[in-house]
Amino acid sequence: MAFADARKTRGHYLAEVVRSERVTPHMQRVTVAGDELTRLPRHGFDQWFRLFLPREDGTTDFDAVPEGFGMAGYLKYLMASSHTRPLFRAYTVRGHRPESGEVDIDLVAHGDAGVAGPWAQRAQRGERVMLLDQGRGFEPHPSGEYLLVGDESALPAVAGILRDLPRDARGIALVEIPDPDDAQPLEAPEGVEVRWLPRADPLAQPGRLALETLRTIAPVLPVGVYIAGEQTLAAEGRRHLVAAGVPKHDIAFTGYWKVGRAG
Ligand SMILES: Cc1cc2nc3c(=O)[nH]c(=O)nc-3n(C[C@H](O)[C@H](O)[C@H](O)COP(=O)(O)OP(=O)(O)OC[C@H]3O[C@@H](n4cnc5c(N)ncnc54)[C@H](O)[C@@H]3O)c2cc1C
To answer: How do residues 127-141 score in pLDDT, each as one tens digit?
Structure first.
């Protein structure tokens, strides 16, 4: 169950911001809506998309956004004017109400650096965005046993996976968060233990605590593993589990972001 390749997934959807609220100390929920979003396929679990954002000067050319993000689509985007093409980042569907064409996006409020995090904190009703569907990375595992690991950027993915897993699934979900108040209500199967891991040190690198905790766990085999978040958590977490005997093909892992690097 490798993290699925999204390059063949197609479909973009224009939408407008309808709401933006701080749901926990470090998570901003932006709700976007539009007629086109009534047609967004529901892939469930960790369904994700590329979020194309409005430029601050208001000259955003959403025609620069391709229908898919394979080689041809990416080239189309790169060939559009760098002054008007929208910048983009990857996000997860936190909530989806197809009947009203609404999608909730939970964006980590990680400070003033970057594009999407700071945008979420000032997003205004009526601002236009575009979502490029990328399908989902997670696939259920035949064993029904799971080990899910993420930092706060992967909280929406872990929440979606727990919501959509069969109710008889078993296992553990480790979710590192900046603050105890960043925990959110999750719809987890009864047999999956959710462990919130608040960082005691506000300056600690995100993902380190989840990695340290993962290293104390002897996985129950066979198991389907999903690890997402800061790059070191994903790479080192996978390395640890392979050494602990988990076959590589049972581990879906992806570095969502990297300390000190944009995009
Ligand atoms: C498939 C996928 C799904 C994702 N889903 C979500 C999601 O639902 N919610 C979510 O919040 N993120 C999610 N991410 C991660 C998100 O795309 C990155 O965090 C992205 O870098 C944020 O863009 P930015 O413009 O805010 O910051 P950037 O311009 O990319 O980076 C600017 C600076 O901020 C730092 N930075 C970036 N993200 C974080 C962070 N989370 N915490 C601390 N510092 C950070 C960078 O290291 C850099 O120094 C997902 C990523 C992938 C690949």
So the answer is: 999 999 999 999 999
- For residue 178, the CA-to-ligand 1 centroid distance in Å is 14
If 0-12 CB within 10 Å is exposed, 13-18 middle and 19+ buried, where does residue 223 land?
buried
Does residue 110 line the site of ligand 1, with CB under 6 A? Answer: yes
Question: If you classify domain 145-257 with CATH, what class do you get?
Answer: alpha beta
Q: Is the CB of 108 under 6 A from ligand 1?
A: yes
Over the Cα atoms of the chain, what is R_g?
Answer: 18
Could you give the CA distance from residue 20 to residue 36 in angstroms, rounded to a whole number? 20
User: Which homologous superfamily does the CATH classification assign to the domain defined by 12-133?
Assistant: Translation factors (2.40.30.10)
pTM flag (> 0.85): yes
- Which residue's CA is minimally distant from atom 12 of ligand 1? 153
